[in-house]
Write a structure and sequence with these properties.
The complex is a heterodimer of chains A (331) and B (309). Chain A has 2 domains: 248 residues, TIM Barrel; 66 residues, no CATH class. Helices cover 34% and strands 20% of the residues of chain A. Chain A has 11 helices and 15 strands. In chain A, the strands form 3 sheets. In chain A, strands 1-2-3-4-5-6-7-14 form an 8-stranded parallel β-barrel, surrounded by 6 helices. Chain A is globular and about 60 Å long. By secondary structure, chain B is an alpha/beta fold. Chain B is built from 11 helices and 12 strands. Chain B is globular. In chain B, 52% of the residues are buried. The chains are: A alpha/beta (331), B alpha/beta (309). The interface between A and B is large, with 70 and 73 residues.
Chain lengths: 331, 309
């Protein structure tokens, strides 16, 4: 299985390449990609340098153009596709039908992957993108159980990439509008969830309060570590209780599932986190390289090493990890 | 640009209602002036108040009462069995189908005319042209898109494609593998005990300072506030929108339809209509998406507050 690592900037790209990635994925410095954060992503020069460095080391580069353009922004997405094609990248990661149509017509030889933002959770949906746009790989949303992933893998017309590690979206990607409901900006329209410009931190008598555009996402006691107010990971009231009504602040970690994913014929494992530091990318890439090699060599006796888990726990959201939707009881 | 009076539609019931409740609801609806009725389970395949054949029978009854009936598909498909049911729905020939996932689009493409619901991401004209070439007859504007984006798409829309816009109801915002209603009751999804039946308008989720925020409806998350675009009817008409959609709620849906129908066909004071409709909302109004703002915002409310201060 191919190890696909995130690169939010050139140092992260180099960290991924130096620590065992088979491919890195990057985005340009605008709302055409789903990690549209201030100071992140690649301008033209950095993209050229990064691609050169990756290719010199035998590592592929994918470019994510995986948000949904509206007519007023359409030229930016067109330009992003043209730019990526001209850079000699290995694949484009797309979500929008209009953008795929444009890319297929203008650059028929360019390899296309269906982004997780394309929201395809079954083989029929994947078949649509395969038949009309010749996508060669689909990235599955983080909502399927292991059995469901197996079913999709058995029937999918193209190989699959699944998420292995990183921040966990509990909603099916590409169809979650919670962020724009609160802030006016969503992953689909703007490339960011719970964007930083809408965040407020406030020390009060009741504790540290985190808000998103004025909406209280969580409140922390004096000794509790306060987390970033990703709006689905706060504590709310429902049914007479105050709790993490949607999801705890936790990271996805599927190290334990590698032999099964390998047996299903999953083509690639994706690491989330283009917004994270080069140190995160280096650490995660290193652990996953070791795990994938161990699993490929001897899947029957493969077991996640204690030190891998310790390393990953250090960089996990809320210092916790979960198997997420892969593990049915989580659902 | 077309400038007809838009038709009114009633979206699929998003909640889990018992069989009798559903049948009584549609008996009421058949007497309202709504033109188009969307039928079917779009949220959770475990909800089976009506069997496939019973939905078809209900569809035939509503058609006989003069309604255009469209069968709506599940939005998030994860299991092979769900795809099987979806295929059967797409292969029946008696009624038009509303695709709510690309799998349904795939089953319908090139075979017969179809409609897309708000969870199929059509954010630009390019997407619309691709789907029009495959048999799309009508599309629904994704709920997070604004008036300005709608205007841009309408200005460059394929011939003979109709546009539908949600104008009233709680906003469908997200879908998950996880069932939040079961989670609230500390039950596993596979043994949910059909708790959604206890929440005919979904379960309210509030912030820790008691501000109503979202609604948990099984695997779907909705806005707590109710979208209302009654004050925008003239703009919607001028933009050439063909169909205006009302989303069902457990009470007053018939009155809501009548108010919209009245406003479309007779001169009506939209402020009065908005005030009357506000009385039918579980929490309060919102319309921010229409103006390109946060979806939860409410411009009318701001205007009222400003005039009071």
């Amino acid at each position: 299985m191919e190890l696909v690592c995130p690169a939010g900037n050139l140092p992260s790209l180099k960290a991924a390449v130096d620590n065992g990635a088979d491919a890195v994925y990057i985005g340009f410095r605008d709302d055409t990609n789903a990690r549209h954060f201030a100071g992140l992503n690649f301008n033209d020069k950095r993209a050229i340098d990064g691609i050169k460095y990756a290719h010199a080391n035998g590592v592929k580069v994918f470019v994510a153009i995986n948000t949904y353009p509206q007519p007023s922004g359409w030229p930016r997405w067109q330009a992003a596709v043209d730019k990526a094609a001209g850079l000699g990248i290995n694949a484009l990661i797309l979500a929008d039908i209009g953008v795929m149509d444009y890319a297929t017509k203008k650059w028929p030889k360019l390899r296309l992957h269906l982004s997780v933002q394309g929201s395809a959770t079954n083989d029929a949906a994947i078949r649509f993108y395969h038949e009309h746009f010749n996508i060669r790989r689909a990235v599955l949303p983080r909502v399927l159980s292991l059995n469901q992933v197996r079913q999709v893998a058995e029937h999918s017309p193209v190989p699959l990439e699944v998420f292995g590690f990183g921040s966990l979206c509990v909603m099916v990607e590409g169809r979650c509008l919670l962020s724009s409901y609160v802030t006016g900006r969503s992953p689909n329209t703007f490339g960011a969830c719970s964007p930083a410009n809408a965040v407020q931190w406030q020390e009060t008598d009741a504790g540290m309060e985190t808000r998103l555009n004025g909406v209280l996402i969580d409140r922390y006691e004096k000794d509790e570590p306060a987390g970033y107010p990703t709006l689905c990971k706060g504590r709310f009231q429902a049914c007479g209780n105050t709790y993490y009504a949607i999801e705890e602040p936790t990271s996805l970690n599927t190290l334990a599932l590698l032999p099964e994913l390998q047996a299903m014929g999953i083509e690639a494992i994706k690491i989330e986190g283009r917004q994270r530091s080069p140190a995160y990318v280096a650490r995660v890439a290193q652990v996953w390289r070791a795990a994938l090699d161990a699993c490929a060599g001897d899947p029957a006796s493969y077991q996640p090493q204690e030190n891998w888990l310790t390393e990953l726990a250090k960089v996990s959201e809320g210092s916790q990890t979960t198997l997420g939707a892969y593990h049915r009881p989580w659902q | 640009m077309k400038n007809n009076i838009p038709k009114l539609s009633l979206g699929p019931v998003p909640y889990y209602w018992a069989r009798e409740t559903l049948l009584n609801f549609y008996k009421q609806i058949s007497d309202t002036p709504v033109d188009i009725v969307y039928l079917g389970e779009t949220v959770c395949s475990k909800r089976r108040s009506l069997k496939h054949a019973e939905w078809l029978k209900l569809a035939a009854q509503l058609q006989a009462a003069g309604k255009e009936v469209v069968l709506s598909t599940l939005t998030l498909l994860e299991a092979g069995s769900e795809l099987g049911s979806l295929k059967r729905l797409c292969e029946q020939q008696d009624f038009l189908v509303e695709a709510n996932d690309m799998s349904a689009v795939q089953f319908l493409s090139g075979k017969r005319a179809f409609v897309t619901g708000p969870a199929v991401n059509i954010y630009n004209s390019g997407s619309l042209f691709v789907l029009a070439g495959l048999g799309l007859k009508r599309w629904t504007l994704p709920v997070e898109l604004s008036r300005d984006t709608l205007a841009d798409i309408q200005a460059n829309r394929p011939d003979d494609i109709e546009t539908e816009v949600l104008v009233f109801g709680r906003l469908p915002l997200a879908y998950s593998a996880r069932c939040f209603t079961a989670r609230a009751h500390n039950l596993p999804k596979d043994d949910c005990q059909f708790r959604c039946l206890d929440y005919p308008d979904g379960m309210l989720m509030s912030t820790r300072e008691n501000e109503p925020f979202l609604v948990l409806n099984g695997i779907q998350t909705q806005s707590a506030r109710t979208l209302n675009l009654v004050s925008e009817l003239e703009n919607l008409r001028q933009l050439g929108v063909d169909v205006l959609r009302v989303s069902p709620q457990s009470a007053h849906t018939d009155s809501i339809i009548r108010i919209f129908h009245h406003c479309l066909h007779k001169n009506c004071d939209t402020d009065e209509a908005a005030a009357e409709l506000a009385g039918f909302m579980p929490v309060g109004p919102c319309n921010g998406y229409w103006y390109g703002d946060a979806g939860m915002d409410s411009r009318q409310e701001l205007a009222v507050q400003e005039s009071l201060s």
